[in-house]
Amino acid sequence: MADKEFIDSALKAHNDYRKKHSAPPLKHNKEISAIAQKWANELAKKDAFQHSQDREYKGGKMGENIAMKWTSSGDDYTGPEPVSQWYDEVERYNYSTGSGPSTGHFTQVVWVGSKEVGFGKAKSSSGKWLVVANYYPAGNFIGQYKENVLKPGTRSSSKKAGKSKKDCTII
Questions:
Q1: CB within 8 Å of 159: residues ≥ 6 apart
Q2: Distance (Å, rounded) from C-alpha 144 to C-alpha 107?
Q3: Does 120 fall in a domain?
Q4: How far apart are CA 98 and CA 36, in angstroms?
Q5: Which domain holds residue 68?
Q6: Which among 59, 60, 89, 102 could disulfide-bond with 106, CB atoms 3.0 to 4.6 Å apart, if both were Cys?
């Protein structure tokens, strides 16, 4: 289960990365954490690793990042570890085109329009740690990357940043 220490450190790691990209800090949402925890528990029970198909929240969609860790020693999964794994995709992101291969975890972490986050953590019977982070509102909307995924050190001047369209595709 995602305890207070895990949640606080995962939130801090998110906000440290977001600050680099001039994105406002995320706020922890206990209700979203309950949803993320429920999915982490389900993944652990099934010993599976897949995104949830049910990410409805307050009439909109939540974004979701998932991560997994397994070690023979059974070491715990600390809050910053999955966030760092997701953020490391930054190396493949092209700010000029607003795209990159397999960078959706990174872009969700720094997405300007996402305001709240919740975390879940569970361990499967085979010893895998599974982490789920849900974001509201969701990020990764086609056509909105340039104003929501900012190059480190730049400031958002777009009034469109942080707005989501309900009819866009989430990838």
A1: none
A2: 11
A3: yes
A4: 28
A5: 4-136
A6: 89
pTM: 0.89
Q: What is the CATH number of the domain that holds 92?
A: 3.40.33.10
Nearest CA among 119, 117, 120, 136 for reference residue 40: 120
Q: Whose structure tokens read 């897949």?
A: 50
Count of structural domains, the chain: 1
> Cβ distance 69 to 129 under 8 Å?
yes
102 inside domain: yes
Closest Cα to residue 163, out of 65, 60, 36?
A: 60
Domain for residue 8, yes or no?
yes
pLDDT tens digits for the chain (171 residues)? 889 999 999 999 999 999 999 999 999 999 999 999 999 999 999 999 999 998 999 999 999 999 999 988 878 999 999 999 999 999 999 999 999 999 999 999 999 999 999 999 999 999 999 999 999 999 999 999 999 999 998 876 444 455 444 333 333
d(C-alpha 45, C-alpha 5), whole Å: 23
Question: Which residues, at least 6 apart from 113, have a Cβ–Cβ distance to it below 8 Å?
Answer: 137, 139, 144, 148, 161, 162, 163, 164
